[in-house]
Structures are given as structure tokens and as C-alpha cells.
Protein 1
Amino acid sequence: MQDRIECCEEHCVHPEILEHVKLEMPNEEALYDLAELFKVFGDTTRIRILYVLFESEMCVCDIAELLNMSQSAISHQLRVLKQAKLVGNRREGKTIYYFLADDHVRTIIGQGMEHIEE
Amino acid sequence: MQDRIECCEEHCVHPEILEHVKLEMPNEEALYDLAELFKVFGDTTRIRILYVLFESEMCVCDIAELLNMSQSAISHQLRVLKQAKLVGNRREGKTIYYFLADDHVRTIIGQGMEHIEE
DNA sequence: ATTACATATGAACAGATGATCATATGTTTG
DNA sequence: CAAACATATGATCATCTGTTCATATGTAAT
């Protein structure tokens, strides 16, 4: 957060900063992936699933019961969470256990909580 | 992440853990607000705006030019970012400068980046 | 006051999203 | 292998989202 940029377009007093900002921007693909990742967090059902998995790994129908939702709805959302690599799973007989994939999940949700608690 | 829960519903071997998880869950309103917050991060345009503001506060039309988008589109999105308290603004004559509101933005985006870079 | 400039806002429309329902897949047991 | 169980998946539909377009608001200068 240095100098600010004067308005407007062709009147910008600091074109070198505009240029600098452009260079600092991550590439389009990374920004797209980042937005996609946050979209995954941007749904109450998925947030609740992640919270439930904070406590213990669990099978699909347990999550469904805890959240009072259909098995199908949970399964669809677990798929989304898995594609985003936020959860992993392992099979044990008929049952498939889901668990949190890594600690970024906790950090990200924790920071989000801090923000809304202000 | 302690004991796992056995399947299914009425067959759960650890009903006390199910009960424990229910008690640990934040209230519905907090979860809703949290999802709403992440929804705001879940859009490429808004992510790009936040990234641009990492470097320097900026006026609307500068952002619009940097992102190569219409003034209206940027203005609509800045409104969303402001409602989520992710950005603030101040007026200086005709111009309105937008800036990042707090450091949670950097932390959250930073963690998100770490996650997708794996 | 009139004009120009910077920004905001409302309506509208296309595209994305999430739950439901019906059904399919994969596993174990008898 | 047939039945039961746990989970996954595809289609459908109502709802939500983001951009555009036209226009409104607010400020400064002449």
C-alpha cells in the first residue's frame, strides 16, 4: 500500500504503478482456480460438512443424519469437496469414510470466522 | 480427529460422538455468515479486485481499466466487497478511493493460494 | 446554472448452482 | 447369485449470480 493512483484512465499520474500492479498479478489460471476454491467454501452445506469433519472422520450417512439432509445431497457435495481436494476418503467394506484433506481448511475457515466475528 | 463413527444411522456405535459434534457446531447464523463471506471470495472478478488493492488503494475507473472491465461491473462488485467489509473507501473530490479493509483478506487469500499450489 | 466527470444503481437476461428424485454401482452376506 | 446395504450419479427444476445497458447521483469547474 504505497502511493495511490490518480484518476482517471489516461489521466493516471502513476502509469508505472499500474504497470507494476499488472506485473504483480498472478496469472489468469491461478486466479480462476483460487475463485473456484473459495466457491467451494461458499455454501452452507459444504461448510457444515467441513465443520463436522473437524471432529472426526465420518461416513456419508452419518453426515447426512447429523446435518439432517438426504444422502444424495451430501454425496453430491462431498464430490465437490473431494474435487477441490479439501476432503479425502477411504473405503472400508461397504462404508466410505471421509476426512479433512489438509490443514489449510482449518486455517481458511478459522480466518473467515475471525473476520465475521468482528 | 479422534474415533471415527460407525455406519449407519441407527447402527452408530458412538452416538455420544454424534451428540458431541452437534454441540460443537457453531450456530446456524454464524455458518450462514461464513458461507456468505466465502461466496464473496468465490468470484474471479472480486478476487482480481482484491489482488489489485494489495498494491495500492485505487479509484473505480483505475480498477476497471486494470481489469479491462466496465465501470459499472466493477462498481457493482465493489459494493459486494464493501458489504462484506473486505474493502473500505473514502471520497476525495469526485474520486472515490477503495482500499483493503483488514488483514484477514491477505491471510485468507494467501492460504487459498497455498492450497491450490500443491 | 450548466457542463463535465466519477461513481452508483435498477432492470433484465443468460448462465451457474444446489436439492430432489430415480436409478446405478459396488460391496458384503446368506 | 440374490438380497441388502452404502454410496454415487444423471436429469430436472427453481433459485441465485454477474454482466450489460440505461440512467441517476454527487462533485467540481467554468
Protein 2
Amino acid sequence: MAATMKDLSRETGLGLATISKYFNGGTVREKNRVLIEAAVKKLHYVPNEVARSLKTSHTRVIGVIIPELSNAFITSIISSMEDILRKQDYAVIVCDCRSDPKREKEAVDFLLHRRVDGLINMATDTTGAHLKAPLASGIPVLLVDRLIDSLQGKVSAVVIDNVHAAGQAVQKLTSLGHRQIGLILGSPNLYTTNQRLTGYLNALQDAGIAPDNEYIRYGDYTMDGGYQAAQELLKLKNRPTALFVTNFEMTLGTMLALQHNNIRVPEDLSVIGFDKLELFGEIFPDLTLIRQPQLSIGREAANLMLDMLSSKETGVSRIVTLTTELTEGKSVKALKV
Amino acid sequence: MAATMKDLSRETGLGLATISKYFNGGTVREKNRVLIEAAVKKLHYVPNEVARSLKTSHTRVIGVIIPELSNAFITSIISSMEDILRKQDYAVIVCDCRSDPKREKEAVDFLLHRRVDGLINMATDTTGAHLKAPLASGIPVLLVDRLIDSLQGKVSAVVIDNVHAAGQAVQKLTSLGHRQIGLILGSPNLYTTNQRLTGYLNALQDAGIAPDNEYIRYGDYTMDGGYQAAQELLKLKNRPTALFVTNFEMTLGTMLALQHNNIRVPEDLSVIGFDKLELFGEIFPDLTLIRQPQLSIGREAANLMLDMLSSKETGVSRIVTLTTELTEGKSVKALKV
DNA sequence: GCCTAAAAGCGAAACGTTTTATTTATTCTA
DNA sequence: TAGAATAAATAAAACGTTTCGCTTTTAGGC
């Protein structure tokens, strides 16, 4: 049905190799160029990437495996990644594994069958077992947002400095006199959860404050979870004077919980949130928060992947650590001592 | 590097065709089956989908073009679609065109080059010009969420009955005595926007109420837009007694605006929202809203696409219209007359 | 105009599968 | 146990590109 290069060859009277050269940026005599272009138009020729892939043994497809597609932070990273990759003519196959390691492994196999040129993974399986095969096959593998201990030195990654980010937020609070600081974390055992907890604990220690487990809650990185965690913290007999919430959805949930309870920010309670997404826009313009550069994360990941694809040196591990920013708002007040 | 069927053939002493038959479900003598499986294990053979695609001239890839990846309604549809398609061994290439018709057209071309087996599109370009080529090429094209007039009869689609959905909501309000009903719509000229507006106007007419343009606002389908639109409606001298908000993000924005203004729902103002997404969870359990079955939309779309792929009849147009549901909460009160 | 160097064009093989038409092996019947 | 009928295995061609090693054409200098 569709026209092939062979048809172009017949139509123009030129050799197949010449047609191919034309499409691959080689030089072709002016009159032949015209001839070819006319034939392309006439026959509605569209190059067959599949055949090209078979021959060149690269597909210009990147597999992206994520825990959840319904997460604003993740989609904004993917968005910026996809944008850059597509501009370089790379397609992105997204696999949502619903935070299930089994599905994640299946996704890896699925993508490997399809001979993707590279793999970008926001990992669910914290052991890294699922990445054995792709690593062995020699294709570039890139972790995003979450490192995996056992893969250290074997894999590249783009992350933020979570310890520092959390430390910065908490230190801000302690420096203003807060000593009872509620922390709302994501799911236990995740890399980011652990790192942010570490940052929190470090900052408390620096301020000479003993941590209280009552103040540490896990909100599953969902709006609902954040809402619940905030509710619980508010019910404590010894209610915290400040809250540090460690992602976007949970921050939203927390703010809603506060509003439902008629708690004023910062008069009654100080809050530092996490992630500035477009959604926030004008709605909480006064929120003090830790801003993760999700656009940069996506951009760095895409560019790092492109680098890895074009450099022959395989098995090199590069870790890009991006820094977060504390955006001052009006949701934190100094405690009168 | 990677093992091929030819290697298996050499290893087992069997013919290439036999190996192929084995992989494609043909019958093979027991001892040969064992032989092949051993060789597969030994050589770490992984089938090359690219070669297979070239030969069979289908790629088992579906292209999905959407206006925006950062939209909870859209990602929840994609999520459920991807799930079903991947189970049938179809990969999904997602292209986010940022609501830009030019990018949308580019995405179509991009996917066509890659010889996707089918195209699913939540269309940005309301003229449908971008779908000419794929339609002509004979691959299945499926619209989701938004119809395109000029393509009627030429293309299949999965949509909800927007006119009815909006009518249902507004009729609920009028039946309870509301006559000043604010409407917060998405971007002008979109299919869903127009349809929902029609449903609103119909219901007003049925109730003998003359529409007031002041009450009709466009919130761009974003949380921010919804927030702004609500703010504006609240400032009207003749403030509406009820609000109907036509998507998830804007509903969220509206609720925040109400909370910021200390307006109680439903005591001070009745609200009917749109879209029940997981995010909502426990947070607004009492919100009355129109529930779009996004999981079903994704499922129906995936299944319809699979149908189209397996049936030879090309160019048949099937429109699946799903119904919405009015979920009663406590955010609407009857007006004392 | 002739010769040479450089540029452009060419045929054929290859990438890793599937498939068709054919050959070979197996099973069953009598 | 021969022969027919059936089941399984096979070789070779094809899918639409790229690329290698050669041949032909062109342009330039004298």
C-alpha cells in the first residue's frame, strides 16, 4: 500500500542507495534532489521507521517506567522530558506500574522486547532487581527522583538533594523558634521519604531538639493521605506549632484540612509545603515552600539520556543532583519565646 | 550481540521456520520444544519485535495524542487505557501537544512515521484537519472525550453525554428553587465546553429562566481558572445562589475560593462539581457532583481500539456514549421560596 | 580537450523475523 | 508391514531500510 524507497527508485530512475543517501543528509545532485522530492510528493512516501530500526538496530524509543501516572509531580517531569526527547525524534513509551514491583518488572521486559534504546525509571522496586537485565544488555538506564543503593556506581541518575531540602525547611522553622514540628512524609521505605526524614532529623539535632515520633506521619504522597495526616497531627494533645509537608498532593490535603478546621496560617500554625506546580498558581500565593525544579529534572534527565545514547562509553555512572529552593511566603511566623 | 532465531536454529539443529512456529503457537514435537526452550535459556534469546513488526507490518503500538499531560482527568483515562492495551501486548506512545494544534499535527506525523497501528486522540484542533492523513492511511482512529463535527461518520469515538450531564446538574438546582446559577466552563470553543453550555441553557429554558451572561464564566479547565472564575462570580452584585463547575480542577479551585471567602457550602451557596477523582477521596465527601466514568472511558476506548484493530472492516464509525451520574452529597440546599 | 581527483551514484548483501510451498517424518489402517 | 493420510520440519523469499565496495560522472587545472 504505502510507497517505499524502491518505488521512489523506480519513479526517479535512481538507485536505491542514492535515495537512501538523500534521506540521510548525504549530498545528491541538484536535479536528482528535485526528482526525488517530486516523487516523494507524488507517491506520498513516508519513511518506514521500523525498517530503519531493524537495519540500524536502534529504535529511537525511550521507555519510561513510573509508579503512577496520576501524580502531578511525575507528569510534569514526564511532560518536560517528552518534550525534549520528541524534539530529537525520540518517542516515549510510558508504562505506569501502579507502584507494584511485579508490574514494574513486567514493564521492563516489555520494553526490552521492543528494543527501546534507553530506559528511564522512577523506581518502585527498591532492590533494583528489575534493572539487572537492561543493565546487562548495555542500554543506558537512568534513575529519576529515587536512587537505589545496590546500583550505586552502575547507573546514572537525576535527583534532588532531599536531605538538604528538608534540612533547609526545618532549619527555617527552628530558627524562628519552633520546637514542635510536624512532618508529613510519603510512603515508608521510599528513597525520598528516607532522605527527607534524615534531613528533618539532622535539622532537629542541629537545633538541639529531641525528635518525637508522634510528630512524624506518613501520608502516602496523596492528597488524601496528607489530609488525614494533618488531621491526626491537629488532634494531638501537644499540637505542633509548625508543619513541614513533603510533596505537592499532601500539601494540598494539609491546607484543606487546616481550612476545614478553621486554622489560620500562619497565625495559628506555620506551614512549609513542597513542590510548586502550576496548579498552585494564584491559590496559595503566600505559601512558603520547597520548590523542586521539576522542569529541570525532566530536562536534565532527557539531556543526560541523550548524552548516554550518543556516547559510546557504556557503564559510566553520572549522578546529577539538582538543588531545591526555599520560596519565602507568608505561611511561617516567628514564635514569641 | 543479542541472540537471534538463527542462533537458536544453529544451537538446536532445527530449521528457522520451526523456531518461528514454536514462538507463534504452532505445534512442535515434544523433544524439539524442550530443545528450543533450553536454547532460549542458554542464549538469553529475546524476540526482536522490530523485525517482527517489519515482517508483519504491524507494530503493536498505539499512538495517543492529548492536549495536556498535567490534567488528572486525562491521566486517569490514559492510565486505564494503557493498562488494558499493555495486557494485550500493545505499547502506548504518549504525545502531549500542550493544547497546540501545530504540535498536535506534528505528533500525528511523528506517530505515522513510526507506523503505529492505531491513533487515539483527545483533539485540540477542532477542525479535524490533523486527522486527514491517518484516516486516509486506513489505520483506526479513535476520538476520546471530544467529537469533531467535520469527521462525523468517518471516525469512531468514546464520549459522555455532556448535554445530559450538565442538564441533570442544572435541573437539580432549578428543581430546588435556584434561579441564579453560576456556570464555570472550560476553554471556549471546545466540544465539551459547548455541550455543557447547551445542557445548562436547556435546563434553564425548561425551568423558564432567562440566561444571564454574567453568570457564565470560562475557567480554562485549570484549578487556577476555576478559582478566578469563582472569585468573579462571588463579587457580582447579584451573586448566584448556586454554582455548577464543569471539571475537576476547576471544582477544586472553586472550593478553595469559597473557603478563602469564608463561604459555607451549602448554607451560603450551593455547589455541584464535576469529576470524581481519587484525589478527592475523603476531602470533599459531601460534594454533590457529576461523575464521569473515566475508568470506563479508558476501558471502552482501549477495547474499541482493540476491536477496530482486529476487525478487517475499515472506515466504520462507532460512537460509544457513556452516561454520567449525579452523585448526591450535601453541597446543595433547597431555596426557601 | 585531457587527465586527475573528488563527488555522486550504484548493486547487492544484510538486519531478524514470518510465511509459502515443499519435503520429510510419524501414525494409523488394513 | 506396506501404504495412505496426517503432522511436523524445512529452505528460501520477503518485509523496507542502510551500508560497503565499486563504478561512473563531474569539475578543475593546464
